[in-house]
User: Fold these one by one.
Assistant:
Number 1:
Amino acid sequence: MRRSLPFVIALVTAALVAAGWWQAGGYRLRAERAAGTAEQAVRALMADIQAHNWSDAYASLDHANGLQESDFIREVAGADGSLRTYSVLQSFEVWPLHADANHSTQRVRMNWSSAVGSLDELRDLSVVRDGSVWRVLWAKPDFPNVPLQVLPVNYLRWDVVGHRSDDWGAGSVDSPRVRITSMNAVERPDRVLILGEIENEDTVPAYLNVNATLLKPDGSSLEEQDSFDAISHRLLPKEVSPYRIDFPGLRLSQLKSVRMDVRALLVPASADPVISVENQTIDKDALGRKILKGVLVNQSGQTANIAQVLAAFYDSSGKVIWVVDGYLDQALLPQAPVPFAVSIPDDVAARVQSYHVVVNHYTAPTA
Amino acid sequence: MGLRAPSTVSAGSSFSITTTGSGPATFYLLGPSHVVKQTIQLGQDLPISGSDVGASGSYQAVACDSVGCTSTAFYVLPSSPARLSFLVHPSRVPVSAGNAINATALVYDRFDNTVLAPTPVKFQFSSSGAAPYTRSLATARGIAWLQLGSSSKQGPLQVVASVGETAEPRVIQQVASEACGLRMQAASSSRSVTLQTDPIRDCSGNPVPDGTVVSFTMIDDAGRSTVDTPIKKGVARAQFAVSGRARISVACGVVLGNEISIGGEP
């Protein structure tokens, strides 16, 4: 008995380790890394990306296009404090688009868990046979090559100074004057949306929040929500932002009216960076969905780490019929164009006559 | 036993209440915000300290001995004006706006009682580049107020309200109104166009403040391009990559500027 006890303990330990490995997805990972088929090659690559095994992921690629490991990691893991650097690959789906004996195209939908929520990325991967294994031919990222230049920087900013006084009328500065220029209640299959635009009509920057209260026919409050992140909260003088407030699970027939409330605060702000939205067009993506796509160009000399695109769509009468937002997972480097796309429901796209895109950005404080 | 007080007293002023009778009694002074209790000897004048009648309003003096109680009422009036509360609204106002500024002054004595008697309040207005002027108004129920329009020139407008030696200054920023005659010019190279507005001014000639957003929109073969850029040093600048013929427009708030066509169009 005394001799067999170590064997029993070793056996139980091995069994527990094996169970843990199985439970943690080790078997699946191993199966995915065995790139016997094109789909398995893509799955193995995704598994490595998920596990942040950048070297293994790069080693598994086909290097015919001269892709550098640093470029691959920069594209997949992000850089410059971009949203991707705060993201992890949560899940992925792979399905084939085309295959022959030596070449295959696989479509992968990656779901990234990020600091601002879940982000989807759709990518078509070319996979080639290399002897007995398949390897993904990762497209060489086209990082912009901005020539060395000196950009004049004029840091225009506002500060709020002085102290507030409790004496009546002695220490007050008016809040910025802002105005809701349009509001529209829209019903979707699963929710009611309050959409519109708001303008800072003052000569000072404003931090604002739009609040909507849905009222029942008897005048009582049904539900209250604010615009959360579907708005550009900080508006410079004469700047306009779309806003969108979601009320899931409600129908327009339940409402009599909507009470809007805007709270604006006087805050310090900077006028930089300036970001242009270029080449905006309504098109279709790879899945056939209508999208508004374009390119963001940071015209300032300061990197914008995280950018959010907010788009308002108008019908022929100029009414806002849809507001959508989307985050970019790349940082906006000075003068470097970065593509964006936001989706539009088909029924809305058919009525769109015009649109207005604004860019909201977060820039990490520099030392 | 009896009490006799003056019918009116000025807030903060000491005075006496005459008592009749003899022997000890308990004295109560009941005011709007203050109560005093003390033992007195009837038949003597009872001094009341000014600090016991700081709040204006109706007071009651009561004296009670073993036989019963007697009382008298008197009124404490606000004393002379000593303090001002002054509210000027708004703190920023566009130029040339009629009746846009509201100045309201409330007059108090040194105990923060509203001085209800008509009191002259002097409002003095001064701004750079314009002669100061003064308006004097009497308070009605403690309040003096007036409305006035902003001038056509931007800059700080100082408003001082004064009563006697007391003065309260406030500053209003008169800011430029909407842009007027917005115009831009374009300098195009082979692949890009650089846009710059003329100095942006309102219809009174005041420069629109730096930081005000100007929107440039270009429509070319590649689609629509927009940039919202703030005015810096009086002008707004933007740059677009351009492909083929393009039409460019500029706007600031609700004001539209000129349009420029590039690529052969007039």
Number 2:
Amino acid sequence: MLEQIDSLVGRYPTRRAALLPSLWLVQESRGWISRDDVAEVSDRLGLAAADAEGVLSFYFLFHRQPRGTVVIDVCDNVICQANGAEQLLSDLCARLGIRPGETTADGRYTIRRQECIAACHQAPAVQVDLEYRGPVRSAEELLA
Amino acid sequence: MTPYEPVLLRRLGLERSGDIDVYERTGGYQALRKALKEMSPQQVTDEVIASNLRGRGGAGFPTGRKWSFIPKDAPVKYLAVNADESEPGTFNNRVFIDADPHALIEGILLCCYAVGISAAYIYIRGENVPGARALERSVAQARAAGYVGRGILGSDFSCEIHVFRGAGAYICGEETALLESIEGKRPQPRSRPPFPAVIGLFGKPTVINNVETLGCVPSIVERGAAWFKGIGPENAPGPKLYCLSGHVTKPGVYERPMGTPLRELVEEHAGGIRGGRQLGFVIPGAAASTALKPDEIDVAMDFDSLRKIGTELGAGGIMVFDDRVCIIETLERLARFFRHESCGKCVPCREGTVWQHVLLTRLGPRQGSARDIEMLKSVSEQISGKTLCALGDFAAAPQLGALRKFPEHFIAHANGHCPVRDAAAVTA
């Protein structure tokens, strides 16, 4: 991991610019980003951990706690809303017995409300592990 | 429907359209070859100036002039490509990148050649993983073929292209927040001046262009400014990728000349309102624009025509709602979006978007009062024009526009009624 971070640094004129790419690297290999991970990355990039935390906390897509094996992000902005997003979300939550933002007890699924994902022509649109799905006709379609 | 030959989406639907051999076989990288062989950097800039190409991100600033602001003698300069596309109602960058990633790369290379830039960063929103993958792959292919890297096609022009992934924040589409994000800082907009053309990415002069804008450049270089100006209106010529979504029969991205009437886009291309319903209202330029009434849709979809009737083209995100949708509820949801996405740097936006949302959570469910309407107006006016970036104006505009144009809906809600829901209850 540290070697990969070093290779990212070469793409930018400052070490700091490798912060977001490094955080993606951590999340994609470990699933989520722990405080220890932040300490490790910021140390490598010559930043204070608090400084890196301040940047990281700004963004929606970074997970700060263990999450489900499958992450389902349901867009609930106006176009998806006009195409049944709320019904889809409540069906999904009912099927899994959780609320938006939660993870199932077996660690299989996390469901989140998401802002517009640039898929309005696929409304109601969803991302499953950041892959686009839509129009989604039923909750079953996503849990199969 | 007048015949029109697509420019930006001409490879859409072509098998393996994202692969370099298909791109080359269909005329790809010819503009770059032409520029490197026959044109000086200044000539490329001049051609883009002559074409009157205006930035497709929403501001409509002349692209060639933007390029010419970059100091010629600066040893290090950058191009930042805005592929953050996060405003509700817009998805044309995504469709374009999926269909023709090499066209974006060629546009980037032409811009870099014209301005004397040797490194470009494509900032793509974190959610668009397929797009980022397609671009990474295309850059690698272009590098292997000698279009990216040192001494491109045997010339003395060198250029690197990096794909940079965002991580989920609408503000990163704001050009200076985008630069901060690449630099690894909290993505909050910068105070201007200095403008990015002077002090931009990593403190160096920087061009920031939208994906669709750069997508137009290869065709301008190859076919000439005169050809480009022959498409659409004189003051904003060229092709435009219109996104149609909501209650239309065929939602999608439609490429038509800039200035295509909104009615034609909604009724002909997108197939009209689905399920035999009537049109309720249209938001023509994504979340930050003022909604239009059904009798206003004969307007030409270009920057100036829309500004004339008090709304905006934005990035061309046309959101269509049928007569069962309550505009106050739509505004409430948009207010939640802007509240969530305000970066918190400027007080009027940080506090104002919270209040806009709070007031609309009362007005939407018909629990508000006339005083809430007044306060929504005053809060929105206090945001407008008082923030470092346009996001404040974006949050204010749809509310102020609707207060002006749909006052009867606000008043009805304040009195415990909803014109749309009451009508639905009667017919039910």
Number 3:
Amino acid sequence: MRVVILCSSIYSETSCAMAMRLAQLGYVPTGAITLPSLDLHTVLRKVGQWGVPEVVRYAQTKVISRGRTEAQLRNPYLEQLLQHRTGSFRTLREVAAGYGFPIVTCRDQNAPESIEQIREWSPDLIVFTGGNILRKPLLQVPRLGVINVHLGLLPEIRGMSSPEWSLLNGVPVGVTVHYIDEGIDTGPILRRSEFPEAAQCSSLDDLRNRLIAFGIEKVSEVVTSLDRGTISATPQSELDEDNQYFVMHEWLQAQAERRLNEGHLAAAAVRAHG
Amino acid sequence: MSHSQADSNSDAVLGRAAKALSEAAGLVRGPQRIFPLVRRLAADRLATFEPRHLYSYTTTERATGDSLKLLVRWILDAQRPDGGIAAYYSLLTGYSDSYPEVTGYIVPTLYDFAHVTGDNHAAVAAERATRWLLSLQMPSGAFPAGLHGGDPQPSVFNTGQILQGLVRAYRETNRSEIRDAAVTAGNWLVRMQQSDGSWSGPGTYQGVAHTYYSMVSWALAELSAAVDDEQYGLAAERNLDWVLRHFAPSGWVDGINLRGHPNYLHFIGYVLQGVLQSAILRRREDATRAVAKSAWVLLRRFERDKFLHGAYKPDFKGNRRYACLTGNAQMSCVWLRLFQQTGDLRYLNASLKMNEMLKQLVPARGGKGIVGGVSGSYPAWGAYQPLRYISWGCKFLADALLLEQALTRQFEASACAS
């Protein structure tokens, strides 16, 4: 199966780990489309989200220490996935060099030149690991579609800060692998998986990091199943804009973290999807 | 366009130009205001280079309590020797005269602040304001339109807004003269109400009905509860029914109906606040649902665009590149009340973010009239109350912060209890 990866930056650990995992399973990406890493708006957004010290630390880890394998990962649960014979990959460029697939940088993944490049690769499937909100012309290119892993159970928790909203709303923490359509997290569901280790997480960061690693594993399972033709997607019920959640304010994040630390985790039955 | 429309439009343009010139002349009379004006313009020009930069979901360095103190300090500084609160501090002309309408509905904010902080100055200011308001009441029970000092004309809207303050002052002091003034005002409002539930004709702005007069309903619903007289509550519900007929399926609220002005977010906020507060007092779930729909549309816009426009066209189409900060604070109040009513944390989330943004825009330094002020527009040269710090902006932001404090404390307490 021909798989293309979309990512927000060559420094995205999640994108690196996803490419590595797929390659290990025999689905070496046909190519990857990435956005420029040093975009002014992205830098400003990250400064707003993380604060200046964290952005500087990130830049040190990723850019200044480029190529130094001892550089620390933001997500330690991806360390194992990123290891190779002589060390660890730290950028998608390194992964691509290791496995021999091309990377193309574009300003917008929906841009005509990006779509043209993807068409040339003729993918069966696109795995989305970050970037723009995808539009119909791009979504129509791959034979099977574009899949994404959402860090929450759909359709209950759509949108941003899903693990945190799950904790506050008493919804089990989990991930959903789904096709992307033109809405936000509204596409047909391939697999919903409750996360069994939520109670062991020490913080929201820890939970999110573990969920990302868990999600990568679930995507790889879904890709394998799609290749074998043993999985089908289920359209989402409750397709209502009222199910959309937005980035959570720091004060509410603290309340969610308190729930996590106090063990107030929902243990509802997971509906069968895929 | 007819000749009369063309004449009326050119009159409006000339009127605005004359007003702008007259305000600019204020700098000649007060040259000490030039430096603060230039500083504010430069700061806003720099800050709005990246329009989304203020959208924040992290806690700002300024605590909510400190911001509240700044806002109330602005209000206390704006209290004039007669006891009324100025409408605004203009960067061109300084303080305005006392403004009866705003003085009335600032009274509950001052009492709320005094109770939360134990600061007696705010309660004393509320009592002074109430005494001044009582002196303005007309024999009919009405209160006058406009700034103090002009030819007093009875105003339905201002009477309703002042009634808010009188009801609260009566609840705080239990004084019979305040109760009597409130009842007389309420009786006048009921007499002036049309059979369809609206207020139009004499005593109304531009002589026509407006949906933002739902604020008057809120005051009547408060009066009904305070003096235990159902006639005021029924009048409030009649207006509520009339306003609800103007809610479109898109959530848009029609009938703001201000000729010559866009639909500023401030007036949309008025409609929603008035309907929601009346709905809560009168237990009208249909009205709460209608407000929730509109408030949700604006919440999604705010979360998506990181910004609410200063004014909207029907169906919330907006392209105004300035913020109406008062309207933002009012939306924060609406979202907080909806969180209180529904338990939906997304309303709380949006208002926490909105409040963070607004707190950053309250000057912590500067002279009287500037420090603690809320400007009409952001940037300051936006179309809504340009180059002015306005008293009702401080009032609504203080209300939003007080409500945020109360609800977040309740949430923490209930989390601990569970």
